[in-house]
Design brief:
Layout: E1 2-4, H1 16-22, H2 24-35, E2 45-47, H3 49-54, E3 59-64, H4 79-95, H5 107-113, E4 117-122, H6 125-137, E5 140-146, H7 151-158, E6 163-167, H8 171-185, E7 188-189, H9 200-219, E8 226-230, H10 235-248, E9 254-260, H11 265-272, H12 296-305, E10 308-312, H13 314-325, H14 342-351, H15 354-360, E11 367-372, H16 379-386
Parallel strand pairs: 3-11, 4-5, 4-7, 5-6, 8-9, 8-11, 9-10
Antiparallel strand pairs: 1-10, 2-3
Length: 398
């Protein structure tokens, strides 16, 4: 399904808080923090000319976040960045002066961090980032996971030092439980979704994601005409789209938000014209996108600069995983997890439909940017769906 944005706020400017969080200054700050981390390196941007030709577009580039900071996901940029920012802010309050990222290992800063506990709910990737960020600064982390999160993902998060709490129900249940327990115990919630009265920290998480598109724009021969962005609660899509809109202005690309048909809360919100919660029914293979209520901050951004909203089916996501692992011609192989290629699945679906092509202006001149948001964060599940272990995929380094 596809729905064009008919919302009254479509193409209106971002509100001031969102423009500040997702603008150039905020993105530069996020990148400065990232460069201070020991294992930072820019993730690759791959051109896929053979697939572009098949889709009858001019160019297709995939930014591969499966290699980000050893966590295998774009989420490595968000939660950890927010945790570090919050620790430095708290240290600044207690020490009575500004505290910079270069002081993160100073004993007096680490002593303050050791008194702080950060918690979150996660499908897997966000929890890794929060746990890693807490570990970097010497803080405590508690991560809430719902019934559908695999044991392998839970074990990986725990390996970063997080205390794990299993919650019955789905992702939205774990979000509410994390918020409830944190309020009782005085912990700081670092969530990638937002709700009334809780917006700044999700804004910091989103700010961390802007590094992805800053890197991509430096490498692309021309800015993209279209970007297909997968969404769970919508924070990732809003961060990428928001930065592009601020930097490129009227030349910004057309933004298409892609969700699993089984968990399409942004699509339902766009259809209703207001944030709505959808029922939890069948689980989706795109586990990192299995969210049933949008982030209010994300929707505020996407209602303005999301041009279309669409859904993809389970088999679409699995087909993309396989296509990227076994590319045609000289296109590079890419390891893409179950949720990582959802944006590409949306492009392939749209490119093959005459009506969607026309509605989106996809043609032989289109330059499309896709972000592979995760690698094989659950290697066993990847091997099951692709028929090949992720380490057997013949990767290129650039």
């Amino acid at each position: 399904m596809m729905l064009l944005n008919r919302h009254l706020e479509h193409n209106q400017p971002l509100v001031a808080a969102d423009a500040a969080a997702l603008g150039i200054a905020g993105a530069e700050e996020a990148e400065r923090f990232l460069q201070a981390r020991d294992n930072h390196s820019e993730t690759p941007l791959h051109a896929l000319p053979v697939l572009a030709s098949e889709l009858e577009i001019a160019a297709l580039h995939v930014k591969d976040e499966g290699k980000r900071l050893g966590l295998g996901s774009f989420k490595a940029l968000g939660g950890a960045y927010a945790v570090i920012q919050l620790v430095l802010e708290e240290a600044g309050k207690r020490l009575g002066r500004a505290v910079d990222i270069g002081e993160i290992n100073d004993p007096e800063v680490r002593a303050i961090a050791a008194q702080m506990t950060f918690c979150c709910a996660t499908d897997g990737n966000h929890g890794r980032s929060v746990a890693q960020g807490a570990g970097l600064v010497g803080a405590r982390s508690v991560v809430f996971v719902h019934a559908g999160v695999s044991r392998e993902r839970v074990a990986t998060i725990a390996s970063f030092g997080a205390e794990m709490v299993r919650v019955e129900g789905g992702y939205d249940h774990s979000v509410r439980e994390a918020a409830r327990v944190a309020a009782e115990r005085g912990w700081t919630v670092v969530s990638d979704t937002s709700w009334p009265g809780y917006e700044r920290i999700p804004g910091l998480v989103m700010q961390g994601y802007t590094v992805i598109v800053r890197e991509a724009l430096r490498r692309l021969p021309e800015p993209p005409s279209h970007v297909f962005l997968q969404a769970g609660v919508g924070g990732f899509a809003a961060a990428i789209a928001g930065y592009l809109a601020i930097v490129l202005g009227e030349q910004r690309p057309k933004v298409v938000v892609v969700e699993p048909a089984r968990a399409a809360c942004i699509y339902a919100t766009a259809e209703a014209g207001r944030p709505v919660k959808i029922p939890h029914e069948q689980p989706t293979v795109m586990a990192m996108l299995e969210c049933h209520e949008p982030s209010l901050v994300a929707w505020r951004v996407l209602s303005r600069i999301g041009d279309a909203f669409m859904t993809v089916d389970e088999e679409d996501a699995v087909a993309v995983m396989n296509r990227l692992a076994r590319p045609s011609g000289n296109d590079p192989a890419i390891v893409s997890g179950e949720s990582g290629g959802a944006g590409l699945a949306g492009l392939i679906r749209a490119a093959g439909d005459r009506g969607m092509r026309a509605a989106l202006g996809l043609d032989a001149h289109s330059r499309v940017l896709i972000i592979n948001s995760e690698g094989a964060t659950d290697p066993g599940r990847y091997a099951e769906l692709v028929g090949m272990a992720p380490e057997r995929v013949p990767l290129q380094t650039a």
